[in-house]
Amino acid sequence: MNEAHGVPQIEFSSVVKTYGSGRVILDSLDLMIHKREFVTLLGPSGCGKSTVLKLISGLTRPSAGLIRIDGMTPENARATVSFVFQDATLLPWRSVRKNVVLGLELEGLAAPRRAQKTAELLELVGLADVQDAYPRELSGGMRMRVSIARALATSPRLLLMDEPFAALDEMTRDRLDEELLRLRDEQKWTGVFVTHSVAEAVFLSTRIIILAPNPGRVHAIIPIEFPFPRGAALRETSEYEELVVNTSHILHQALSA
To answer: Is 194 helix (H, G, I), strand (E, B) or coil?
Structure first.
C-alpha cells in the first residue's frame, strides 16, 4: 500500500547538478516524496543516486533548480535529516553506547535523558547486551545496527541511506531489511534508500525510482503495493518474484535510455 499523501516532504524542481569541468550528473530532475514513504533509488553506477541523497541532506548544493525539504532549503532542514552511509563510520575508540549517544551529546541533551534515549534505541535495534563493546568486536551487521541507532537518536523525520547493507551477506541483509521496516513502522520516519539490489528495493519500498545515466534523470517510477508489515514470507510469493523480474527488466532498459 502506497502511503503517499498531502504536501510533499521532499521536492526537487528542475534540479541540475554538475561537477568538475561541467560534467552533468543530474539533469532537470523533478521529484516528489511524501511523508511516510519509503522510496528506493535504483540505477546503474554514475546515474546520480548518491548525489540525490547528498542534495537532500545539504552536503552538496544544486547547480540549478530548487530543492525543498518540509518547505525549507536542505541547509535549514538538516536538523530533521539523518544519513546512514555504506560504511558504518563508527568511532573506533568509543563503545557501542557512546557511538549511539554522540548526536545527543552534540545536541546538548541533558545527561539523564541521553542515557534513557540511548538505552531505548539499543533495545530497539537488539544491541543492549553489547552496549559496552567496541566496533572492532562486532560483526558487520551489528556495526550497521549501531550506525542506524545513532542516526535515529536525534528523532529524524527523514532517514537517508546510501547502500547501508551492500557489504553484508544475503541472509544478514534480508534480516536487517526486515528490521529497518519495523523501525520505520515504530518511529514514523520517511526513508530514501539507495541500493543496487532489485530484490531489496522491491521488499522495502512504497515506490522505486529508476534513474537513467549520462546524465542522471528519472527513467521510471514503480509503485510497490504490498501491504505493511512485510516479513520473510513476502519473498516467497510469486507476486514478489514477478515484480523483481519486471523491475530488473526496466532497470536494464535504463542502461540504454
So the answer is: strand
Q: Report the alpha-carbon distance of residue 79 to residue 136 in Å, rounded.
A: 29
- What pTM did the predictor assign? 0.92
pLDDT 10s digits, 85-127? 888 889 999 999 999 998 888 888 888 888 998 998 898 888 9
Supply the angle between the helices 170-187 and 140-152 in degrees, to the nearest 10.
20
Report the top-level CATH class of 8-91+157-255: alpha beta
* Sequence-distant contacts of 104-111: CB under 8 A, at least 24 apart: 104/153, 104/154, 107/154
249: left (phi over 0), alpha (psi -120 to 50) or beta: alpha
H helices within the chain, ranges in order?
Answer: 49-57, 96-100, 102-107, 111-124, 140-152, 170-187, 198-204, 238-255
Specify the DSSP element, H or E, that contains 10: strand 8-19
Phi, psi of 36 (to 5 degrees): 75, 5
